[in-house]
Design a protein that fits this description.
Blueprint (H helix, E strand, L loop, with lengths): L2 E3 L10 H5 L5 E3 L4 E3 L19 E3 L9 H10 L15 H4 L13
Length: about 110
Amino acid sequence: MTFVVTESCIRCKFTDCVEVCPVDCFREGPNFLVIDPDECIDCALCEPECPVDAIRSEDEIGEAQKEFIALNAELSKKWPVINRNKGGLPDADDWKDIPEKLQYLIKE
């Protein structure tokens, strides 16, 4: 199993999680982070670091967030590695408690 970044990260992109990753498996998009499932070693160090509780073990993801397993795999092939904390997006605090943010995901 691997860890997956879920919907809560969209438009927040707090990067506290990337600094603790021992294998640099995080990838950075414009307004979302993903975990490369081929690189993740399932160490669980990142999960408690996320201030919006967006990181889940693949086997603990609820039905509503299942699509994020494939989305992390897809986008991790396109986006560059991020391995240092850059803070969140400027308006992250405004978005951290907003549900159903998939429509705001920028995949470019």
